[in-house]
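Q: what sequence does this backbone want?
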């Protein structure tokens, strides 16, 4: 069958794609920016890639007419305060585009919406479901709560809280109950639901076997990691304070923190239904989902991470808009150093950031990250998904990868920290030298003052970093 996959660069989409291909489907991958879609070589000959922005009707013509089924896996929760309208408009445009094709079945992954009073986030998901249901096709909605897997937003937030804080003074919403589900089970449900007539024009809640409070989830995570943690709940923490708490302690963006806090006050527990039994799926426990996630992390096999989504940054951007580094009206700091071994130099560059740090003056990078957090930026909290691989679109601390080619020995990063301007950091390994170029395009007088204020540190930080990059592997 010919399947349209929206959200192909997202957390779920990246994991669903290879399973669909293995099941013999021809998959049409929808991406907003072709430059940041990096499927494995083994899949490239078996998929079709189209550029599609669900908020831009002019791109809808790129959707093939001869598709049989489709997955709707997109949302805008962390990218804008006005995400309700964005999500509704996206669903409306998608529905109208599907009506012009031969599609028979659409599967939508939503959130559990059983409470009487829904948060803005869950209410938006319900509105999307209602809009999609008006199409000339069969719709099945799978409603999930907290998704646990390596790289998922929920997992990373829990991980940040537990591993950073031996003692937690927490808001009362930690007593709210939910029903988490492992990401591997979500993929199973998505695959087995497609074209299953028993699910046509119906919605199902999907979850694991455990119903836990958020406090119990944190403590169970601590048990899995052999950590002793104490959690005390206070009734006086407002939603705004809770959002700031979540934002400063974890790697989440502030917009996402607000949406999560408002949703965490509402129970997300599955209704009784037999969809798992009909599909022959026996969901794994919360503890097993955690253990599987850590197995993936320890073996460096994280397939996808929410941090690599563009919405994890502080600005909406298309890689294509920034891939060509400007020169007019810009400040540049270019340095170079001879290297001993090409492969060693490239390997150093490809491991930069995250746990490996920036090779020199890490405390200065950390200070810059802290200041960025204070002003609402992403800081260094995102780290990186893989310790050894980088692809266009990946997040590296407060940078975004625009271009990464090991054979060329070229890596281009774009700054997502709060700046009075725009900044690029480029590495090129060629002609027996490593060339490192920092480019800054200032905005007004504040931008120029900023450049002159940080310039004295460049010689210290960049020279130290270059020496480490150019040196042989230990």
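A:
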């Amino acid at each position: 069958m010919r399947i349209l996959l929206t959200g192909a660069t997202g957390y779920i989409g990246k994991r669903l794609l290879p399973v669909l291909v293995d099941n013999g489907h021809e998959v049409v991958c929808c991406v907003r920016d072709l430059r940041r879609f990096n499927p494995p070589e083994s899949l490239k000959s078996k998929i079709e890639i189209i550029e599609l922005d669900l908020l831009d009707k002019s791109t809808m013509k790129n959707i093939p007419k001869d598709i049989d089924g489709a997955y709707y896996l997109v949302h805008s929760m962390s990218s804008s305060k006005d995400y309700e309208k964005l999500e509704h408009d996206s669903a409306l445009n998608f529905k109208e585009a599907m009506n012009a094709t031969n599609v028979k079945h659409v599967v939508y992954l939503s959130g559990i919406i059983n409470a009487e009073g829904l948060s803005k986030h869950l209410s938006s998901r319900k509105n999307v479901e209602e809009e999609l249901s008006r199409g000339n096709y069969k719709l099945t909605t799978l409603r999930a709560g907290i998704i646990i897997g390596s790289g998922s937003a929920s997992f990373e937030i829990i991980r940040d809280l537990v591993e950073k804080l031996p003692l937690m003074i927490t808001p009362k919403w930690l007593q709210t109950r939910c029903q988490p589900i492992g990401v591997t089970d979500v993929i199973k449900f998505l695959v087995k639901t497609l074209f299953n007539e028993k699910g046509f024009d119906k919605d199902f809640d999907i979850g694991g076997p455990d119903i836990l409070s958020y406090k119990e989830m944190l403590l169970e995570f601590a048990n899995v990691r052999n950590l002793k943690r104490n959690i005390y709940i206070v009734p006086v923490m407002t939603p705004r304070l809770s959002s700031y708490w979540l934002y400063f302690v974890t790697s989440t963006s502030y917009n996402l923190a607000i949406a999560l806090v408002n949703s965490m006050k509402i129970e997300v527990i599955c209704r009784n239904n037999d969809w798992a039994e009909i599909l022959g799926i026996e969901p794994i426990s919360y503890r097993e989902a955690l253990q599987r996630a850590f197995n993936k992390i320890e073996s460096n096999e994280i397939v996808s991470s929410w941090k690599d989504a563009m919405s994890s940054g502080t600005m909406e951007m298309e890689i294509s808009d920034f891939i060509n580094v400007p020169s007019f009206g810009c400040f540049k700091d270019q340095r170079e150093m001879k290297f001993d071994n090409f492969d060693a130099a490239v390997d150093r560059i490809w491991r930069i950031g995250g746990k490996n740090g920036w090779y020199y003056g890490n405390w200065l990078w950390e200070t810059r990250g802290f200041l960025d957090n204070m002003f609402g930026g992403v800081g260094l909290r995102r780290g990186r998904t893989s310790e050894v691989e980088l692809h266009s679109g990946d997040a590296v601390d407060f940078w975004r990868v625009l271009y990464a080619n090991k054979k060329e020995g070229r890596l281009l990063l774009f700054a997502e920290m709060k700046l009075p301007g725009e900044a690029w950091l480029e590495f090129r390994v060629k002609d027996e030298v490593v060339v490192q170029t920092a480019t800054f395009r200032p905005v007004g007088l504040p931008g120029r003052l900023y450049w002159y204020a940080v310039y004295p540190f460049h010689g210290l930080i960049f020279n130290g970093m270059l020496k480490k990059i150019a040196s042989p592997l230990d």
